[in-house]
């Protein structure tokens, strides 16, 4: 039996500890909220502060690709109207192929004969295959009305633009790390199907071959070429895009006034309105991190 | 107790509900469990101690959850609540659609409601965002909430916007009578590391693939026993082949719950590599069997055991190897029986039940609220979501009134209380519907 003189008070309650064992902590309820509550929470740790100019420069990739697609559609319209005949189209194809090749070679860091040979071999396989299959494409949609073809093509092109991978390239140069994801494969397929539909409306086999070659080489290789240019020099990329935009706008103006206005509106929306909007809504971003997060593995899982 | 997850499934939530119900029955309360039918197991069943379980005949449609019909469950739940003379409803697990629906209907009918959250969720991916919104809806009007660890409390408060004073932290416990250390102490010349978990990404199976070969290389006298099955088992088998560790890594496949103890007592160290855990019961079971635990420092794991019974490591292979080295070095100081006796004092289901009873008493003391007061809480959930939730609750209220008209409460016959011999002396304080 203890005899306490004077001190009648209970011993001071021990400090609350953030532990689960040992039952209820004496002197504290189970719903006790300590000052250390949520002290490990980190807010907006990974949020990048965006600069308006940088965002506008980055949006140039999107408008550049929009202009490329607009040019392709222009060539299709001219071919369908027989303004452009098959020989000039073939010339266009060869020159585009050649210039793309030269750009790839010039901007490639690791230039090797084996790589060059690899490219040449792939391109020749591809061209031969197209030439052989051209008669099939010609009769593919004979039973479908033209209106359905235009409607399907336009919707496929819109799908292609929505799902396109604007930051990289689906066809990657050998040795690139990122694998293409599902949406970029879907967009590529949509564009290829659209080109097949348009090519099937053309009168002769050479027309079909030339148009298919043109469309496919743009849709498959243009992202790769623009990606190489961007990697090589950002200023060159900006100049190239501005030149491309100017060329596209001139051609579309000479074609149809309404389309011109539409294209100008799209370009302004993509380049000016969207960056401003993005920066405005960045303020609402609220990212929460803390000890409850699932741990991220620091190594890649290679199967 | 309401949840989609109950016996015959085995898991953290299922065991929690079962043990908690048994201890509450011992304290003299009446406990009824509501869950969905499992295969042929449908209707009313009685389990140990007179625990009545309603297996309502709905089929699970996705990951053991019933199909969410929002109002379709109202009639049967109302019937069960009135028949069993329930006074309080306790829902488990945020991922259970049955739990959310039952809590919503119980609130409409005016019952007091308690919710226990057993898992941690993120904030960033699409699934989590939707889950958190649903949770916000359910918890906007819950009377009290329980979380299984302090980290889980922080996570739940952030996800649902509940005031922290409404959330109680009551951890899980372990049945120490079932998890006893081996009769004969194991020899120390060969060290056996045991891993028992589902072999999925979330439980860190990829970390195991990196850690096991390294440890086997550094310590020739270490052997691994891996129990459990899952999609990542193939990777572990490949790792075993690649490093020729067939005699040093034993893969047991899926271990039934009854054999977990025998697997655990064959080892010295228990390795847990999960990437996220609100509260890891596996660690408790291992500690109760006298094993030293090595675990990743994620979620609520640092709160579970005192520092001398667990070695923590970052979820990084080199850090885990380092932790295993430290564990091997302190292994001679570990006495399994001493550890088991300590665990008996640290974790106890009866203690959990008593603390839960305190939460129930607090909940029952809360004042009743009219529909209008409750609607104002739902409105604060968000600009669009708040109005949607209010609409949902108003329709729920109207359906309740309709059900009252069609099947009045006085027509529903109440279940007589069956007095089982072992509960003769228990005063019926209240009838609790879990």
TrEMBL record, chain A:
Question: What are the record keywords, sorted?
Answer: GPI-anchor biosynthesis, Membrane, Transmembrane, Transmembrane helix
User: What pathway does the UniProt record associate with this protein?
Assistant: Glycolipid biosynthesis; glycosylphosphatidylinositol-anchor biosynthesis
Q: Give the superkingdom in one word.
A: Eukaryota
Q: Locate the transmembrane regions by residue number.
A: 59-78, 90-107, 119-137, 206-229, 236-253, 259-279
Q: Which residues form a coiled coil?
A: none
The protein's topology relative to the membrane is: Multi-pass membrane protein
Q: Cellular location of this protein?
A: Membrane
Q: Name one Pfam family in it.
A: GPI2
Give the record's family classification.
Belongs to the PIGC family.
By what name is this protein known? Answer: Phosphatidylinositol N-acetylglucosaminyltransferase subunit C
UniProtKB/TrEMBL annotation, chain B:
- Top EC class for this record: transferase
Report the pathway entry: Glycolipid biosynthesis; glycosylphosphatidylinositol-anchor biosynthesis
Q: Which domain of life is it from?
A: Eukaryota
Glycosyl transferase family domain boundaries: 183-329
The record's annotation in Pfam families points to: Glycos_transf_1, PIGA
Q: Which UniProt keywords apply?
A: Glycosyltransferase, GPI-anchor biosynthesis, Transferase
Q: What is this protein called?
A: phosphatidylinositol N-acetylglucosaminyltransferase
